[in-house]
Amino acid sequence: MMDDRQSVDSLLPIVYQELRRLAAGYLRRERAGQTLQPTALVHEAYMRLLKDKPDRWQNRAHFCAIAAHSMRQILIERARARDAQKRGGARQRVTLDEGLVAGGNRSIDLLALDEALERLAAFDPEQARLVELRFFGGLTVEETAEAMGISPATVKRHWTVASAWLARELEGSPQT
Amino acid sequence: MTPARWRLINDLFHAVLARDAGDRAAFLEQSAAGDPDLVREVQTLLASHGRAERFLDEPAWGVAADLILDAPPASRAGTNVGPYFIVEEIGRGGMGVVYAADDRRLGRAVALKALAPEFTRDPVRRARLTREARAAAALSHPAIATIFALEEIDGELYIASELVRGRTLREEVRDGPLPAERLVSTLIDICGALVAAHDCGIVHRDLKPENVMRRVDGQIKVLDFGLAQSDSGRNLSALSRLTEAGAAMGTPGYMAPEQLSGAEVDARADIFAFGVLAWELATAEHPFGTDAASLLARMTELMDGGSGRLSRSLPMPALDQIARRCMRGAPVERYPTSAALLADLRALDITGTPVPRVSDRTLWWWQLHQLVAATLIGIMPAAVWAIRPWLRYPYGSALFFVTLTLAIVSVTLRLNLSFTSRVLTHTLVDHRARAYPAIVICETCLATALLGIAAVLFGQHDAVAALLLGVAVVTLASLTLIEPATTRAAGLTRA
Q1: How far is A107 from chain B (nearest CA, A)?
Q2: Which 36-75 residues of chain A touch chain B by CB within 8 A?
Q3: Which of B260, B249, B253 is nearest to A9 (CA)?
Q4: Over the stretch B38-71, which tens digit does the pLDDT of each residue have?
Q5: Under an 8 A CB cutoff, do B260 and A49 touch?
Q6: B103 phi and psi, to 5 degrees?
Q7: At B223, is the secondary structure helix, strand, or coil?
Q8: ipTM for the assembly
Q9: What are the backbone dihedrals phi and psi of residue B74, each rounded to the nearest 5 degrees, phi first?
């Protein structure tokens, strides 16, 4: 992926733009009380790019990985910037329980999630990649399976256990 | 945790999950007998799974929508900030909120920009911003909105500058492309501002329609000179440039490839942005397309060293060339300086070349003139052939061949122009300028020949001589009076 540094960098402004568009759309729909059918950003962007530059992004899996990773980077950078802005001590963690119980407030501590994901990658890189594709890239189970070259059933299995592990890490349960 | 251990935990987790809820605890105890750690691991995972089954189900941009969009700061209209009274909010940009304010010390209206904290947190950046604002404040040019002061009030940074009332070019271009004359004069004004700034070593770095205003009285004002920050030397990734500062590091669609990749930029980055701006004002469309994917594709192409292929050309061929040269991917292929660019823009204006907004009705008259003239000239050799016997041998034949040659050249050129005017209108001005001198020479010679023949025949064949005289006079009048007039009317002149 290193030789794609240039491509990744040129992809970022676009990913960022799309991210803003999606986030705005998300808030709009949420306020309007509609149920959300999240668009797979990566999928859409890929289809459009494929039409435009067939030779550049031949490898769909590769593209999805880059785009999902870019989004993760963008979000984490933003979260860090906001964190630094608040300064003056501990960052405001919204615990998962609170978030889930409150219903309306689904805030997840992205920085903690990012760190946990790093830890997961240390002993299971495949699951970490899968979470990146699904959560940051917004891919469906089927799309993730296709991007990773594994079966949807395997994706679901990995997802179940990885998300449980991450949830536990974020709850602050004893770490292992 | 080792990968092997994790695999064990995974397998057990799924095995337990496959059991009925009631059997799980017993099954787990039995399967992991003698490994209390393993039991605890799987138990807690199952508990988390039960509590947070839908955890992470929503994509990140939904969960973190507010993080991406950043809640806007509250407006401060009606309050005092240091010596300024905030009248109203007039805009929000990547760098912060802009207010119309009163400077109570001097009693003058100013635009007060409250810089977003991400610009001022970092001391390096703050120092740089201070330095650049100071440099920009030294700029004095009618087309540059003057910066009055950089103020630090309660730990926050504010930039006070000339308050410009009017419309941004973004608003203007929403109504469609700028008419040719207005377009050229606007571009000349903007480029003049660039020249003045570049002469002082100040690069704008974020030139775009949003940053150029036309004041109510028509004066162009370029805003925010030198305030967009360069990152050279700070070694930030493209990512940080975008996320840390929002749009304030430049705007992707206007950023030159070298700027996008974070390299040191110079005046030529502004020239690139100018090309994009010129294109947009001329067509009301962004040259690289509006959707993210096509923008990306063009930008990647430019970064790969190609020149962004543009799907159409500008209605003004000369301006088309200028804009394309500005938008070259490699800085060395662009105009070397904004002064060189300005010279070309001025040349556009003075000669009016770019304005073959050829009006159809007057062009029709011009085309008619071409056909009538071609017919008249075409008849001439036939007439000379007819009266050849009256002239002494070999002069008659010689004159016939001379007139035939001249007529063929002239008629061919005229028919060719007529064809060009129908098929390749945008090249007509240049084409005509090249062909016309030859036509003038041929037809002047023809008219002279006819006058000579008329003089010889006078006294023997008066009627024919008079006719030839008439044709010669009409030809000359057409060349000197009628043709220039129809050409001007059709907008085909350069001078």
Answers
A1: 6
A2: 36, 38, 41, 45, 48-49, 51-53, 56, 70-75
A3: B260
A4: 989 998 998 888 877 777 877 777 777 666 665 4
A5: no
A6: -85, 105
A7: coil
A8: 0.73
A9: -70, 150
Give the pLDDT score at B429.
Answer: 78
Burial of B126 (0-12, 13-18, 19+ CB in 10 A): middle
**Phi, psi for A28 (deg, rounded to 5):** -60, -50
* Separation between Cα atoms, residue B207 and residue B255, nearest integer Å: 9
- The answer to whether the beta carbons of residues B182 and B316 sit under 8 Å apart is no
Separation CA B10–CA B363 (nearest Å): 81
Distance from CA of A52 to the nearest CA of B (A): 7
Q: Please report residues of A whose CB lies closer than 8 A to that of B297.
A: 49, 52-53, 56
Chain A to chain B Cβ contacts (< 8 Å): 195
As a dihedral over the C-alpha atoms of residue B441, residue B442, residue B446, residue B451, rounded to 10 degrees, the angle is 0
Q: Where is B443: in which H helix or E strand? A: helix B428-457
Q: Which two tokens stand for residue A38?
A: 């999240």
List of chain B residues whose C-beta atoms are within 8 Å of the C-beta of residue A28: none
Per DSSP, the residues of A62-125 read HHHHHHHHHHHHHHHHHHHHHHHHH-SSS-----HHHHHHHSS-----HHHHHHHHHHHHHH-H
Residue B265 and residue B229 in contact, taking contact as beta carbons nearer than 8 Å? no
Chain B residues within an 8 Å CB radius of A17: 252, 292
A143, amino acid identity: E
Instruction: Give how far the C-alpha of residue B332 lies from the chain's centroid of Cα atoms, to the nearest Å.
Output: 18
Q: Which of A45, A107, A123 sits opposite B293 (nearest CB)?
A: A45
Q: Is the pLDDT of residue A6 over 60?
A: no
Give the residue among A88, B268, A102, B435 at the shortest CA–CA distance from B427: B435
Does pTM top 0.80 for this prediction? no
The partner residue sitting opposite A157, judged by closest CB among B14, B45, B48, is B14
Segment (H or E) for B46: helix B36-51
CB B61 to CB A110 under 8 A? Answer: no
Residue A11: its chain B contacts at CB < 8 A?
296
Q: Which of B358, B482, B375, B371 is nearest to B424 (CA)?
A: B358
Count of Cβ atoms closer than 10 Å to residue A69 Cβ: 19
Nearest alpha carbon to residue A110 among B238, B243, B56, B71 = B56
Tell me how far apart the alpha carbons of residues A126 and B184 are, in angstroms, rounded to a whole number. Answer: 58
For the question of residue B206 being annotated catalytic, the response is yes
Residue given tokens 């010279």 in the structure block: B343
Query: Chain B contact for A116, CB < 8 A?
Result: no
Residues in chain B closer than 8 A to A137 (CB atoms): 59
The CA distances from residue B464 to A101, B73, B450, B451, B469, in Å, are 110, 91, 11, 11, 8
Residue B249 to residue B374: CA distance in whole angstroms = 61
Nearest to B118 among A27, A81, A134 (CB): A81
Angstrom distance (rounded) from CA B220 to CA B232: 30
Say how far residue B323 (Cα) sits from the centre of its chain: 6
Q: Cβ of B292 and A45 within 8 Å?
A: yes
Q: Is B123 exposed, middle or buried (0-12, 13-18, 19+ CB in 10 A)?
A: exposed
Q: Of the residues B103, B189, B206, B231, which is catalytic?
A: B206
Query: Has residue B368 got a pLDDT over 80?
Result: yes
Q: Which amino acid is at B11?
A: D
pLDDT tens profile A50-83? 555 555 555 666 667 777 777 787 778 777 766 6
By DSSP bridging, strand B80-81 and strand B220-222 are unpaired
Residue B219: φ, ψ to 5°? -65, 130
